[in-house]
Amino acid sequence: MLISPSGADKGRMDTNDLLVARIDEEQLPAGASCESLMHRSIYRRHSGIRAVVHAHPKAVVQLAADGSVPDAHRLVEAEQFLGVVGLVERFQSGSLELGVAVAQALDSGFSCVMMDHGAVTIGETMVEALRRMLLLDRLAQMQVTGGL
Length: 148
Known about the structure:
Helix content: 25-40%
CATH topology: L-fuculose-1-phosphate Aldolase
Number of helices: 5
Largest sheet: 4 strands, mixed
CATH architecture: 3-Layer(aba) Sandwich
CATH superfamily: Class II aldolase/adducin N-terminal domain
Strand content: 15-25%
Number of domains: 1
Strand order of the largest sheet: 3-6-5-4
CATH class: Alpha Beta
Mean pLDDT: 92
Radius of gyration: 15 Å
Number of strands: 6
């Protein structure tokens, strides 16, 4: 899997900045993101996916602070594209426990929200996983602002 370096400015990265980590090995490359264990846990549990997006959209984080997730039932296409949006309880950032819990939450859909931490979406391509994250964020914004 490709993983960003710890502390990298994602907006200024290019492909040369990414680190290679093997999914089937325990060793992670030096300087890899502290969330590498979570990404690896997801890939190990969901062998059919090829992309994981982990982000911290403001509206999603706001909902998660109250123990809520974006409601995919608000839009038919969201329900089909996201599936069930899972909610993961609080775990230490970068912990194996967080990784396992997130991977399990993705058993029922293509997205999950971590309390006080952000969200994860998965897909067969990076574009698909990113589109799911953008849709998740849009749903959260609608809930927070009372739209739709």
